[in-house]
Amino acid sequence: MADTGVAAAPAAVRRDRWRPYRAVIGSRVRSQRAYRASFRMDLFSTGVIGLVELAEVLVLYRTVDALGGLDLHQILLVFGLADFAFSLASVVVGHVDELPKFIRSGTLDVFFLRPQPVLLQVVTSELSLRRLSRAVVGLAAFCVGLVTADVPATPRTAVLLSLALVSATAISAAQYVTAGGLQFFLVNGHEMTNAFVYGGRYAATQPAAVWSAPVRAVFGYVFPMAFCGYLPVLAVLGMPGPPGLPAWLAWCTPVAALWAWCAAMLCWRWGTRSYQGAGG
Amino acid sequence: MTGTQSSTDGLRQSGPAIRTEGLTRRFTRREGLRRVTLTAVDDLTVTVERGESVGYIGANGAGKSTTIKMLVGILVPTSGTATTLGRAPLRERVALVRQVGVVFGQRSQLWWDLPVAESFRILAAVHELSADDERSRTAELREQLELGPFWTTPVRQLSLGQRMRAEVAAALLHRPRLVILDEPTIGLDVVSKQRLREFLVAERTEHGTTLLLTTHDMGDVQRLCPRVLVVDHGRLAYDGSLDGLSRLVGAQRVLVVDLDEPAGDLVGVPHTNHLGSEAGGLRQRLAVDSDATTVAAVLAAVTDRVAVRDLAVEEPDIEDVVRRLYSAQRDG
After folding, report:
1. Using a CB-CB distance cutoff of 8 angstroms, which residues of chain A are in contact with residue B27?
2. pLDDT value for B174
């Protein structure tokens, strides 16, 4: 009798390996639906934050006509693309950079006691639907930019923007996981990792041409935020890039995403090994 | 290939449930400019056979939780090895935890905002139980641990006793071969404790589950654990039966009698040691040599001399036993 459950498990693995994650995520969605008033307020406040950040861009463009070679319509495209992707990533993995909370509450130890990879359990332990309102702000800015910025309606544009959206979401998600990995060492390091997660998000919505060369190197290649909005928009509009960031790099956004995820997984592995005391 | 696999599994089935050799874990932390190294577990070598039920006791900070974490792959040993159910806990964590159930102190494996039933449904998915298995095992646990009355209550609204029963049931849902319980009865009332202990005895009898239990409750050890391991500062201080431990440190059961009328000290009762009198001789305490006599015989000898109104038997306090063991070892 004791063997039944154990023997049944491998067969079940073959049938449906996503069942554990679906069950957890489903419960999170139901839980958010159960607390409607609180959910609506969260939804509202997150949307307001998105609007304030969009307003910053609009205010800036009241005093200048162009920044880094991009006018308001074009920067809306950059802002919209990067912000929409970042918001989608934060819905799915935004809670990963709250790792110290998982450590303090002992939830992380509980994850170690379940037969799934710990990172996947952390990722699927929450689904921040309240952050969707911010994604709506990003999407709206993107749509307005798309209509007003003289974007050529060609298959090339469609391919470039689709590639950019998927890759930018992956890059933003990787930033969260990197932050989570680093927080194994920096138990109170939320502020520091916030600086590069949200700093990176901010950088992603800016024209990289205004950055100094070192900043361009950091947010162009180390944390490849320029790939989230700026480079794809340049390529779509047929504009050249600043020194060191040619526009054709927009075709390499999946490579940038891959690089960001390699770095993120390395940080995560490094972090979990440190947590377990296996050495850095 | 298949032959190799099944013979490996065969070995894993037949080896001990837990084997540690020279298991050591040190933590380093900074105190100002100095780095201080603390040895939480020190050269622990121990074997627990399959089907055994073992009490793992020691003072707070003696290294119990650290040991458990190393047995299930949460912590890596600084040196030495741990093998759990024939597997290396760190390298084979996923395969191992399919066969281990843990209730870990204050860490809840249930979802605080969901009803108990929903938590169990998710855990069944997490452990990839088949629909039939989920149904039968859930029903079995729900009945035996009497979860029915609060089955649809959100976990955050449960009393401590209810939550602990739900936690134990959750840890056993996937029919683990090894169950590790860290203080499962702490804060429970007498009835809840008794119910939980009875369940664990039945579960072991029926499924041959190996049980490792850390506790401060002597009753837990007496009813559940024929074998006791005591750790002191990370080192194994004792490995044997509880009776042996009590004998070793001279801890005895104490018979407390309340008398109808004040009487002189009850000295000279065979195989007892008069510990003291209170209220002018109305209440008297006698330490009983359990090897030589029984409480019943002592009581009979006492009632021959005086009229007894009420009585109580005090079991040796586990903390006291451990403390005596520690000091005896340091003196020795």
Report:
1. 277
2. 95
Binary contact (A12, B111; C-beta < 8 A) = no
- The closest CB to that of A12, out of B76, B102, B130, belongs to B130
Chain B residues inside the 8 Å CB shell of A276: 73-76, 90
Are the C-beta atoms of A136 and A91 separated by less than 8 Å?
A: no
pLDDT digits (tens, 9 = 90+) for A8-44: 444 444 567 888 888 888 888 887 877 788 888 989 9
Least CB-CB distance to B128: which of A12, A31, A106?
Answer: A12
Q: Please compute the mean of the pLDDT values over residues A149-173 and round it to a whole number.
A: 95
Cα–Cα distance, B84 to B81 (Å, whole number)? 10
- Res. B332: pLDDT tops 80: no
Contacts of A22 in chain B (CB under 8 A): 125
**A110 and B104 in contact by Cβ < 8 A?**
yes
pLDDT in tens, B254-303: 899 999 988 889 988 988 989 888 888 899 999 888 778 888 899 999 99
Instruction: Determine contact: A56 vs chain B, CB below 8 A.
Output: no
Report the interhelical angle of A132-148 vs A36-63 (nearest 10°): 30
Identify any residues that bridge with B171 across adjacent strands, giving them in sequence order. none
Across the interface, do B128 and A278 touch by the CB < 8 Å criterion?
no
ipTM above 0.85 for this complex? no
Q: Is A213 on the interface with B (CB under 8 A)?
A: no
